[in-house]
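Collaboration report, partner site 2.

Our partner group contributed sequences for two proteins of shared interest, and the home lab folded both. The records are reproduced in the order in which they were received, starting with the first partner submission.
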Amino acid sequence: MDTYQDLITQTFDFPNADFQVRDNELFFHDIDLMALVEKHGTPLRLTYLPKISSQIQRAKKWFAEGIAQTGYTGSYSYAYCTKSSHFRFVLDQALKNDVHLETSSWFDISIIRSLYEQGKVGKEKFIICNGFKPDEYKRDITALLNDDFVNCLPILDSPNEIDYYHEHVQAGKKVKLGLRLASDEEPRFQFYTSRLGVRYTDAVPLYEQRIKEDPRFELTMLHYFISSGIKDTSYYWTELSRFIHKYCELRKLCPTLTTIDIGGGLPIQTSIQLEYDYPYMISEILRTIQRICAEEG
């Protein structure tokens, strides 16, 4: 009689680098999962710290290989988004891998302060401040800026967000800014998020009228976010292409604009069977950027 284990081994590439079977017990990276279940019960979620580093390094490796393969002349940086996990032990592990940090809420700024006070990050650390910003969030971002966190980048999520920084950033400071462009919704996507970000038609006027002439501010980053993540769909490639065209338009007006921030993330593996071609998608993203930049001159 066939067993469930026979079904698994015949259907998937199993055992694999993550999961092994020893004496009919399932192990994850040498961790006895049944022993954890017996101790803590189910449902059970575990965080395996070495996996955090290996995933970050794997993404860096894929981009390095894609850059070499395509001849892309830019560079790649990994930003860890604190909203994915606020736990200290997770952040400590991520910081071992030379990552930028990305915040999404007022709460996250207190984490940045704590990391600085513990000596785990310096004031030169790149901190990308994304998300909708109520006054508390803008207040604490501005406090970082005035306290000489020189690579703290507020990403403008709406045209009027800049007003707060105009009023509260001290004279003589030099502040890098980013701009989030509002993406169109994927057809039939269940969440409405296109209200988040600056409309494409407002991007150039916002730069020329509210940023360009203020000596405290320079626009250095353009950001967009796709809620459904990075997927090989016509919707995704259309949105990416539209974004890169707008980047090129702004870049011709703003020589300090040197960085694009692609949000949404690569999908995590949720099955034993690997179903996503990460190297292909990364190479295609790089090729798309190259092609459009060449077309735009």
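Second partner submission, folded after the first:
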Amino acid sequence: MTLLFAALLLASAPSSEPNADPFFEQGRVLEIEIAMDPHKWRELRTQTRYFGRIAAEGRRGGPFTSPYTWFPATVTVDGETHEQVGVRKKGFLGSLSTDKPGLKLRFDKFVKGQALGGVLERMTLNNSVQDHSHIAQCMTYHVFTRAGLPASRCNFARVVVNGQSLGLYVHVEQIEHNVIPRWFEDDDGNLYEGAYSDFTPRSRGLFEKETNSKENDWSDIDAAVAALASRDYRALAEVFDLDQFLKFWALEVLTGHEGGYAGSINDFHIYRERGGKFVFLPWGVDTTFDSVDQPWDDFENPQSVLAHGALANSLYHHPAWRAAYLATLRALLTDVWNEDHLLELADELAAAVQANIPPAERMKAAADTERVRQFIRDRRSQILGELAHGPPVWPDSGYAPLWIGRFLHPARVLESRHVTAPGNEELRHNIPDLQVEIDGRMHRADFLSHYERTGGLERWGYPTSEVMALDWGALTQFYQRGAVDFHNVGQGWILERRLAWDYIGGGTDGAEDQGTEPDLLNPHPGRVVGPWGHKVSNYAVDGTQTGFADFFDRLGGVEVFGYPKTDARMDRDLPGRVRDPATEPGFIRQYFQAAIFEYHPGDPEPVKLSLLGDTLRNLLMGMPSPFRAAAPLEKGQVLNPWASWEYDRFGLYSSR
């Protein structure tokens, strides 16, 4: 491998050739405005990855497929405007958000050769929802670069979409088209992204090939897997630049990057120049500058080593390589980890954040920045104090546990109803009460009891899925008119209705709904419910008697439906989301956090609930087809809702 260390000097030298350096000036805050079809924007931000699909793809051994699609937009960066720019969502699990999605921009997606400033074709904008300080990412990349390893440059951007500010983002240099050419003489080699990927037969197929993908040549990955399996360290040294890896590994540990290769076999890149060896590059560093504590480990994590990755694990259990790793870690503490320098950089970056972050987020950012500062002050003593007692023990146990390992426990059926919709054999699913094991403790996930207690068929309609793993560590069941989640809300595991309309969003004529429509307030009798000033009333804004308040109270009120997001009013758009073939534009509707009321005059039961559950399911999974029908569950039956799902063209279905 030949790294262009001179690139660090050349980046600051004057040049007659235009380059992307100005867009990555440290501390610079870019102003980015995105204008796009509001319906397309809503579709973009609600696209998501979900736990069950990731688990199924992980077991199949192939790279994770992206659920995100590109949308055209007009993008202005610091006054420079380009049309037909590709915009898509980014994020895996912890960084997912519908309110502030991570974003990727491709100026050349729809217009060949289009580039910002004539030089920058792609931008990565991280939402920093896991790094409230907003500075940990730039700090981490700086430490890697300071140590002489290839890494992204980083600064900030204020992002506005369709006139609405999304707040402050972290702008990170894209690896394939920017970092690789800047650091390597040969930029035509093989680049792979690691997402729960490793050099083992089980996880080898999860690497995503980002260059030369049409060649479909994975021989270098296969050689790495074979060398590691052989435990022949001379063979390993032929495939990996082991000196570079030792430094990369030690820097992941030093910066507390528990979500990287050594800690989680996630969030990293590897690159091999033609005829060269693999080198590692950091990525996804938004959970750094914090003490390491992996939730799935059944042992207390040491602070001076992480060895979940197969390569790190193998080297750590070889005495000579373990000694080399620890020597590298100590050297980095001496040569790179300069507390005064890092604290000065933290102050500089934090000042830029405080000057540009929304006022409501300043206190949280400041508090989290103090976490970063304290980590800088404490890290040396944490590591050296631990090493004073000798190398810490790390299990030699087949490398990293599955990242879903803490949830791969059986559930026992306590009670269950097998429900079939009349005239639709595909809508045939179980609503169970389950006893589930999580982190060694037993919990009850009583979907059936909740269904019956909160209105049953009248409120929820028929179930359209089995209980399934949708989000990280959560269980979900979809019904025609809503969804129910079993998840950890901080105080413990609870089961509650999903605030589906909060998730989907939308107001009159498809506008973004911020919880208030000042021109459509109800002047008729009723009571204001919730924080947004909207009434639950038996009358609509235009005086039509709807009976919405009686229906709301009879089926459980706020506990079942959430707070109203609008008053009852004519809704002539139906924002392209509610799938009910019996519904025509012009109905009176009232939007609640977890439901949509509709008034159907002339019907024996004029108050209806829109098929919000179907809408949510289709948005999350992009699948208008129903889940495959399931066989009845028996009382006492043991199943695994986190691991018993597979994919076909219909989407997820039970493999029982």
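Feedback sent to the partner group on the second submission included the following. The longest strand covers residues 424-438. Residues 497 and 559 are 8 Å apart (CA to CA).
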